[in-house]
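Before drawing any conclusions, I looked closely at one protein's amino acid sequence and its backbone structure tokens, quoted below without any editing.
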Amino acid sequence: MTEAGRAHVVDAPLSPPAPRAGLLEVFRRRYLLRMLVQRELSARYQGSVLGLLWSYINPLSQLFIYWFVMGKIMGRSTEMFAVHVFCGLIVVQFFVETFNAGTRSIVRNRSLVQKMAMPREMFPVASMLVSLYHMGPQLIILTIICLFTGWTPDPVYLLGFVLALAIIAMLGTSLALMFSVANVFLRDVSSFVSILTNFVRFGVPMIYSYNMVDSRFGSFAHYYLFNPIADAVLLVQQAFWVGTTDHPGEIHATHIPDHLYSFGFLGLAISAVMLLIGQAVFRRFENRVPEQL
């Protein structure tokens, strides 16, 4: 046999065709991620007459309900209560939608998971980006309302808003990674997550203010701030709601906790650790996902 006709055998272990670099591989394949996000958005508004306008109508309807029921009927005394609630609503909606949609993302895209060699973490991440996209209209509505009240943007506080986004994006994605793979093995997980997220609205200072927590629990109120979602809500309220009140300095002193940025970065660190745990759990079970689907 000639040299050219000899077969070359490579002695190497077999490896799965799907990439194993995890979240890093997801962002290396940005074109696939962009296609998944576009596919999700197209599917959501397919056959809809109003389309993207629903992204404005839904938050406006929720804002009206909270403002009318809590502000008018129950007589909440919080100044600019509608803006206070809406700041929390933006954060809560971002987290809840990321968590819920991310949990269902693997099962919902079973055909792609079974047929394509791609990092499966891409599906929960795509769900987070779709949720972030839908946060845009809510942010536009909030900004317009604040500007009409004479609000002046503070660059330092707006950096806190960016910190809040990072906290929720990382925390929501980490939980979506863990629960999406669990949902493959037990479909009841998605229903459990839907129930679990119902408690989020009451675990953050949205329909009540932080000074109520501080006045009732005293020194123990600081433990409340170990909740990264609560920190994110307070950072958004600091960036938008405080500046819409008649006396921003007094409101900041009474309604925004001291060392909020320290707690915010602590929340970011907690979210980062959770993301690492979520990635580890996901990789531990992802090889069994196609056969379970």
In short: Residues 96 and 199 are 10 Å apart (CA to CA). The radius of gyration is 22 Å. The chain is about 70% helix and 0% strand.
